[in-house]
Write a structure and sequence with these properties.
homodimer; 251 residues; alpha/beta; seven-stranded parallel β-sheet; six-stranded mixed β-sheet; 8 helices; 25% strand
């Protein structure tokens, strides 16, 4: 069934009515839906409603809430993936996959070895990225949209990191030295938010490693093989889901 | 440092000499290496040698072994990913990523809901796939090449599965029912080989599910969100690496 995201203010819980504005065209003209067709609507705050289309108004589709879906589909921790600025296609691929895998946020960070240079129109891609996230969220049945942050330089990124309970960076050297503390950090984690920085293709500069370690970031390895910058975020998100979401049920 | 794969028969351990034939052109003309340049050579049987180029012969590059590298980079279990036949681009992307993530084998399986139809030239892509695997293996510093099997139909695939100690299939319905037994299977696994089947875009048909369950396959869920067919193999490989390769070192 189709799934749409709306702002919370468009959900009128008392009257059991939801107004869909942004996807009006998609519902009416692309999907050619009719009155009484059923859809899922997510309020981007973990609530999912099974709805029936009750009216096509001038600028919105009005839906009646039939049922609130209680199934939990979101990770209990907020995980933001930060990545050394890489080419647009790689960023898009990572965005798609980590949306499916349950991340709460993504940002690019301008780093010493980023090959891509940022232009003046630096955040012009954000809108496109948000569309990708929205589509991937609908397909993977998420109830919350991942946030795409503006690109930061390393200094601003360090400031931003102060909002997180646990800050990690995936460091090739850690893998080489079999420093696999990721597991220890995840096993014992009982707080709310994790920030993980992955380097650009060329990895971290010595100075960046120094600055990160001075600012409460922990270096982690992701196993003995060398992962590409676009694979590392998928490993991290899969590991977090595996550790925190898959219960061991003795049968 | 560059890394090349050779057949085991080209390694003369007694004389400490390796002959590189296949990558002759790459070493000499692409990389323009010279005598005494150092490279890594892998024998595709878990051995990695640090070598120095000692001679450019007519049809091979002769290297002297300086040192045998003992670092373990391969998973201790053999994991083969089987996937409902999907478009070539998706297959290539999965091949690249699961090579990085340590898989031992990959095969496509013709399934009821595969949208792609196989042509007579059905296994003509295998050579291209092998090249992709070789490149990804070099980049991710593996010591063993992942095997790319020919495409099978479901009946032959079931026969093939008898070679494995544990056979799993990633079933959307299992995720819906919070059947997350993957973790239980991995925690307790003490054998040698795992085969995991991932459906094509449309998922498994009822009949396929029946046949798989009758043939010793266990259904597993990969968390509460719906993963695409090209993301599921990455989740599985990351989870296996996380469970089996990352030790918890108390600091």
């Amino acid at each position: 069934m189709q799934r749409y995201f709306v702002d919370k203010e468009n959900v009128d819980i008392k009257r059991k009515i939801i107004y869909i504005i942004e996807d009006y065209h998609h519902i009416k003209n692309v999907m050619r839906m009719k009155l009484n067709d059923k859809i899922y609507v997510c309020d981007n705050d973990n609530n999912v409603y099974l709805c029936v289309i009750s009216s096509f108004n001038d600028d919105n589709v009005e839906c009646e809430i039939i049922e609130t879906i209680l199934k939990k589909v979101e990770l209990e921790v907020d995980v933001t993936i930060a990545q050394g600025l890489v080419r647009r296609e790689k960023t898009e691929e990572v965005l798609r996959r980590i949306t499916e895998l349950g991340a709460s946020g993504y940002m690019s960070v301008i780093m010493d070895r980023s090959i891509v240079k940022i232009k003046d129109s630096k955040n012009s891609k954000i809108d496109r990225y948000k569309t990708i996230v929205k589509e991937a969220s609908e397909q993977s049945h998420r109830s919350k949209l991942m946030k795409v942050y503006e690109t930061l330089n390393i200094r601003d990124f360090i400031n931003f990191s102060k909002n997180y309970d646990l800050c990690l960076f995936a460091y090739e050297e850690s893998g080489r030295k079999s420093n696999y503390d990721l597991k220890r950090y995840l096993c014992n984690f009982d707080k709310k938010s994790i920030l993980v920085l992955v380097g650009p293709e060329g990895g971290f500069s010595e100075n960046e490693v120094k600055v990160l370690l001075e600012n409460n970031f922990k270096a982690i390895g992701l196993g003995p093989r060398i992962l590409r910058t676009e694979t590392a975020p998928l490993y991290i998100m899969s590991a977090i889901s595996y550790e925190m979401e898959l219960e061991v049920n003795e049968s």
